[in-house]
Amino acid sequence: MPSPQIERKLAAIMFTDIAGYTALSAKDSTKASELLKTQRDTLKPIVEKYGGSWMKEIGDGLLLTFDSATSAVECSIAIQEATKDIEDLNLRIGIHEGEVIKQDDDVIGDDVNVASRIEPFSAVGGVAITHKIEQAISSNKEFETKYIGKPKLKGVAQEIKVFCITSHGLPKTDISKVSAKLEEESKFNIFALTGGILTAIGIAFWIAVGVFDVSFGGKVEVPSVGILMMENLGKEDEEFWSNGMTADLITRVAGAGLIRVAPIDDILKLDKDLSIEEKARKLRVKYILTHSFLIKDDSFDLWCKLENVENGVALFSNKISEPMDMATQMVGKLANDIVTSLKVKTKQDVMKAPTANVEAYEYYLKAKYKYENPKNIEDVEIARGLLQKAILLDDRLFLAKWFQGHIEYGIAFDKPNSEYEKSMGIYESLLNQGKNISDQLRAKILNDIGLIQYQKANYNQAISYYNNAKKLAIKVGDLELENSIIHNFGLVYTMLEQDNKALSYFNKALKIFDNIGNLYKKALTLKNIGNVYYYNNKNNEALDYYLQSKNLFDKIGNNTRITEVINNIGFVYLDKGNYDKALDYFNRSLKIYMKLGSTIDIGMIYYTIGNAYDYKIDFEASLDYYSRAFEIYEKLGDKRGMGQSLMGIGNVYANTGDYDKALDYYVRLLKIAEELGDKYGVGNSLNNIGTVYFSKSDYEKSLDYLDKSLAIQKELGFGEVDLLETTTYLYLTYKHLGKEYDENEIHSYIKSAENIDFEINLRLYELLEDKSYLETAYKQVQEKALAMDDELLKKGLSYPIPKAIVEEWEKVK
Fold first, then answer.
1. Which residues are within 8 A (CB) of 94 and not within 5 positions of it... i.e. 6 or more apart?
2. Dihedral of CA 67/69/70/71: which sign?
3. Most C-beta atoms within 10 A of its C-beta, which of 234, 712, 733, 757?
């Protein structure tokens, strides 16, 4: 005998029944038969419109399924509206959410039985729903419901509560007519709980806590959960299943509503040997989900437990054994169990599976795992290929397409000239899918496009995309995404130098992150507020916010972010002229990078330390660190890093008067910039070569390079400081060659530029013959001299530019 064909899916299950049909059939069988045809002809188009499946006709009743609770409810309302004026087609409707099992040609399952047995609790022309459906639609103000009670359902293990929909002109259930079918509910006695000694004030307090969800400190408690990595109990090469499903589960629960979910980065850093209590403490959460996954021949087992760590009580503990084709629905089922157990109101259908094609889903998870855990650069290409296979199997696997866009964005981010065409093409194609993609995914795509526009410095376009993304995030109740978008607004307005707006958005985000207890996002926002003040030369305010941010990241233990903030603090001290303190922070950062073994970050911090010594005019130390940075970048094959290091080394040789070596490094830098197609880098390289030829008194060559550099700088919109430097050297070249130049242009750049260094002030003195520029340059050198010890001071004042400034000032003062 062949084994039965079994299919399982999670769905919203609807039962309909015609009130009075039995009596009509006994009275007029022909009319009754015609009524069934009328029902079929009327309802089928409506069910199809709302994406429902016509599973089964049972006498005068229907069994229908829908992918989401909202679709089922909207369809039920449309059905009652369409049939209210059709004679004798008086429908009762019941809706429940759960598992549907198709076995050969039949539809079975405990949840199917529940749906059929709550239909009688509907008024004629009305709709009855279980608590699962009610919770799924509760955040949508369009729907109104009334609690009926707990039905007596023999043989049903799960607790069921029934509501009726009272909006949209639907009739309420007359509870007196169904009371015999309801369980008696216990009467709550507050005095029994408290020993009968509460005062009026005490009673008010307990009512506030128990009924209105008021907690100490005036805040509603936001549930916090840590979703630990799903343990793979199978083969090592099946790790991608548990890893990918955990990541998707965290994303889905975090976006469900007012809930704080520990980010996956924090989960990955946890020591596996820690106890559940220690893990909860490190993640700062009250609840922990543990789960394990085992793939068998054509099926899998999944064990899961959600535990309140504070009292050790398990909110649920399940073992699920299913055929492999049910794997696509497990993230949704777990998300629903978590959200329901923690009583989080959500506007989303968290149970919706990304695909019904388990092979496509497998390719998608493999691609994510490969991209996020690369062993070499080829793994990125492998991930792209796996995603393409997933999409070929299921063109509606929109998560795979979105992740395609994410990969292309990451690849483009590391290239010059903002080459985001591939990611933009994928995102725009997804947006053209219309209602096929959810509002939540649409919001994420719009936010991603906003990030691309931000990277391309198209700030007004970024704002437009963020606005649209934010509206959708609010609509679907994805608080996590909404807050991220608010934070992104702050970044855009920072770049637009609209500081009040930037601070307004950052402070709004800060308040929300503080309320929901998201310390990571709070620390990140504090850092970005510090950036606003830093960009406005308000170093003391910037330092205050950076230190607050660092303290929180220290508490969280996020070393990557700690080093970012430490570096920012170093730059503040660098700007304040406290070079030793700046170097102290940069060296702290270096120790952390060394401990983490992050080679590329070590290269970056070597360059930064070299730059700090450059400011200090300790060129020997500067050259040492620039050279270390170059060695690392060369081994990594990172041409951008190599170019940056070559520029630093070239600057050292130019500053110490070794112009031939400086030219050698600048020419190498120019070659790399040209290979990368980095026009910005080409402009800078040409400028550096031009200034060296000026210092060598080769004015014809200087003119050629500076002229080309200035043309590129103006085309790309370089800042006033860069334009001032190149134009000053160019016009000095004109002066030496007896050519005319426009002094007004120089003065316009001087007026707009900030932080003109002593070298350019010397050159402005030589060009404009205005002693005030020389005086400023001399004072700047003196300030640096105060920070030097005797040996360094002696060396520093022997270098060409400082020496020229001091000697010239002694002549003309």
1. 14, 15, 115, 116, 117, 118, 119, 120, 121, 122, 127, 128, 129
2. positive
3. 733
User: How far apart are the C-alpha atoms of 810 and 139, rounded to whole Å?
Assistant: 77
Quick one: which of 481, 420, 493 has its CA closest to 447? 481
**H/E element, 321:** strand 313-323
CATH numbers and ranges of domains, the chain:
6-181 (3.30.70.1230), 188-218 (no CATH), 224-353 (3.40.50.10070)
pLDDT at position 183: 62
> Does pTM surpass 0.70?
no
What whole-number distance in Å separates Cα of residue 140 and Cα of residue 654? 67
Per-residue model confidence (pLDDT) at position 481? 87
Q: Quick check: helix, strand or coil at residue 402?
A: helix
Average pLDDT, the chain: 85
The 10s digit of each residue's pLDDT in 27-51 is 787 888 889 999 999 999 999 998 8
Cα-to-chain-centroid distance, residue 714: 35
CB count in 10 Å sphere of residue 413: 14
Q: Among all chains, which residue has been given the structure tokens 């299943």? A: 241
User: Could you give the CA distance from residue 743 to residue 749 in angstroms, rounded to a whole number?
Assistant: 10
| Rounded Cα–Cα distance for residues 644 and 685 (Å) | 10
- Nearest in space to 303 (alpha carbons), one of 286, 289, 324: 289
Sequence-separated (6 or more) residues with CB below 8 Å from residue 793? 785
* Burial (Cβ within 10 Å: 0-12, 13-18, ≥19) of residue 347: buried
User: In degrees rounded to 5, what are phi and psi of residue 130?
Assistant: -85, 170
Q: What is the pLDDT of residues 46-92, one digit of tens each?
A: 999 988 988 888 878 888 988 888 899 999 999 999 998 898 899 99
Let me know if 380 is exposed, middle or buried by CB neighbors in 10 A (0-12, 13-18, 19+). Answer: middle
Task: Find where tokens 């990078």 sit.
Answer: 593
Q: 125-153: b or e for each residue (b if 16 or more CB lie within 10 Å)? A: bbbbbbbbbbbbbebbeebebeebbbbeb
